[in-house]
Design goal:
This protein has about 280 residues and is mostly helical. About 55% of the residues lie in helices and about 10% in strands. It is built from 9 helices and 7 strands. It has helices at about 20-40, 50-75, 80-85, 100-115, 120-130, 130-145, 175-195, 200-220, 235-260; strands at about 5, 10-15, 20, 160, 170, 260-270, 275-280. The strands form 3 sheets. It has a 3-stranded mixed β-sheet, with no helix packed on it. Helix 1 runs antiparallel to helix 2. It starts with a strand and ends with a strand.
Length: about 280
């Protein structure tokens, strides 16, 4: 017997006043978990960013994820529909967030913060990178609860029958992505962060690791119906991963140069504490 998906996407409803969806709560959980991981990393002896920096970054991260994720989905995946139904753009609780859009939103938010506080941008992305897979995991669980973005037909024992996918068992591709892009990638990046690798390495591994995980999972997932397959085999998600692969390999190349030219100085945090850290020539 295959699992019949019958999860209610609404966590709590008091119509017509309020309706709380699981998908939205997954984002709330992601922010709190990511905040906790960032505070832990900031408390380590060789940390380049303080817990006060984390508190300041939270607002920028939230705005980057939500605005970038939604705008990216609208532009990359279903622009004609949203041009015809512009009010639906704000209905985030119904699903429809693009990781690549959210990724760009966060990158711009971090760039603004780094310029404002005169901090190194790549060191900042290295610091934040281990927190991102937590959001990916929570978002994919939200997709599964919503019964959306399901996979191709399957006869595997763990296949799922989704109400919107017809009366056929399918790959729970949302859970594949939650495991690969979320749990596995988080474990790798968190391990690296504790080893204090050269500047750029963590950001590079994130870009390459996410690209590999997403491209692999897409082979089990139904492509977006408005696009189908590009060139007969590639999905939109896989194509959007190509710039990430390129960025990751460029960062790996640059990290070698930064590693060969280390500098040291003392960083003083807003809370009065200070630490001697390894710096790198630009």
């Amino acid at each position: 017997m295959y699992y019949q998906h019958n999860l209610d996407p609404v966590l709590f409803s008091a119509e017509p006043f309020i309706s709380i969806h699981w998908y939205g709560m997954m984002y709330v959980a992601a922010f709190f978990l990511g905040w906790g991981v960032a505070r832990y990393l900031a408390g380590r002896p060789q940390a380049l960013f303080s817990k006060n920096d984390v508190e300041d970054l939270v607002t920028y991260m939230i705005l980057g994820v939500i605005l970038g994720g939604r705008i990216g989905y609208v532009l990359f995946y279903d622009l004609p529909y949203y041009l015809a139904h512009p009010l639906d753009i704000i209905k985030i609780w119904q699903g429809g967030m693009s990781f690549h859009g959210g990724f760009l939103g966060v990158l711009f938010a971090l760039l603004y913060w780094a310029k404002k506080h005169k901090r190194d941008y790549i060191e900042l992305t290295d610091f934040i990178a281990p927190c991102v897979p937590i959001g990916l995991f929570c978002g994919r669980i939200g997709n599964f609860i919503n019964g959306e973005l399901w996979g191709k037909e399957s006869t595997l024992p763990w296949a799922v029958i989704f109400p919107s996918g017809g009366n056929v068992p399918r790959h729970p591709s949302q859970l594949y992505e939650a495991g690969l892009e979320g749990l596995l990638l988080f474990a790798v990046l968190f391990f690296l962060a504790r080893k204090n690798p050269p500047k750029g390495v963590i950001s590079a591994i994130f870009c390459i690791g996410y690209g590999l995980a997403r491209c692999f999972a897409e082979f089990f997932r139904i492509p977006d119906p408005q696009y189908g397959y590009f060139f007969g085999f590639a999905t939109m998600g896989q194509i959007l991963c190509l710039p990430m692969f390129l960025t990751g390999f460029i960062l790996l190349y640059l990290s070698k140069k930064w590693k060969d030219n280390p500098q040291y100085d003392t960083v003083r945090f807003k809370d009065g504490t200070q630490t001697r850290v390894r710096r790198y020539k630009k």
